[in-house]
Amino acid sequence: xxxxxxxxxxxxxxxxxxxxxxxxxxxxxxxxxxxxxxxxxxxxxxxxxxxxxxxxxxxxxxxxxxxxxxxxxxxxxxxxxxxxxxxxxxxxxxxxxxxxxxxxxxxxxxxxxxxxxxxxxxxxxxxxxxxxxxxxxxxxxxxxxxxxxxxxxxxxxxxxxxxxxxxxxxxxxxxxxxxxxxxxxxxxxxxxxxxxxxxxx
Length: 201
Known about the structure:
single chain, 201 residues, alpha/beta, Rossmann fold, six-stranded mixed β-sheet, 6 strands
């Protein structure tokens, strides 16, 4: 089996309470650092071969903590970057609108401003995943990314479509939304999906 651990970045500093999306800044908070140190303890005996990470600061810092404590290689990839969205820089009050529509991909504002689609997010995430599954067959790999990209990949890989009828939040009973610092474990038999679970501490 090949095991992929999808790790969401830790809590980050955000005094203005805005949606950072791909903006610069927003370093890990003290709580975020503790979350990643806790994750490193969990991974210590998992024989992880490599870490792949989004290059955005909060994911970068999260991955660097894991790299330092686990003493394993780290590669940055834009394939697992945060969703490109016009809600970038806008107040967290937008989250109330997101709740109405199920997820940010279905917000009229996101659609009108040509925000990134679920299909595009999945394609780029899957592109890297395919390479990992071939290169690291029967190994254990960490991917450090962001909430929506992780949920898109995990849900579609496990056979739960996200489309015009189904939003991410349609599946919260199947797969709770990954919290900051959270981990979703997916196992593959070669390149075939086998199982998925939330790792809870």
